[in-house]
Amino acid sequence: MRKMFRKTFGCWLAAGIVASVLTVPALGGTARADYLEDAGMGTATVVANVVYVPVKLGYALLGGMTGGVAYVLTGANYNVAERVWVPSMGGNYVLSTDQLRGAEPIQFSAPTSP
Q: How far is CA 33 from the centre of its chain?
């Protein structure tokens, strides 16, 4: 049974590889460079988000808890808690390729008003 599965899987894998090679359009010089640059930026974005997203979520979680403690300790003063919550829970949670290219700013925390 295993031999038959391996043989069938191998045939389907080979057919998929051949089909994908045949369906890829012929890339010219500049189109190929753009394609490779886009692929590289997409890969860089994924790798950056693997690190950035957990750090941002941890920061937001700690800010949320700290704001909650501040709210309780100040006798339910919402303004004090909000000054902790807004910067820590605001901002970008996921990076985009435009942010990595520098076209858009990365806001780890939200700007605060005085």
A: 24
What total number of domains does the chain contain?
A: 1
Asked if residue 52 is part of any domain, the answer here is yes
Residue 110's nearest CA partner among 85, 84, 92, 90 is 90
Domain for residue 112, yes or no? no
Q: Kindly provide the b/e burial profile for residues 76-102, where b requires at least 16 CB atoms within 10 angstroms of the residue's own CB.
A: eeeeebeebbbbbbbbbeebeeebbee
**pTM of the complete model:** 0.64
For 14-55, how does the pLDDT look when each residue is reduced to its tens digit (9 = 90+)? 766 666 555 555 545 455 667 777 788 888 899 999 999 999
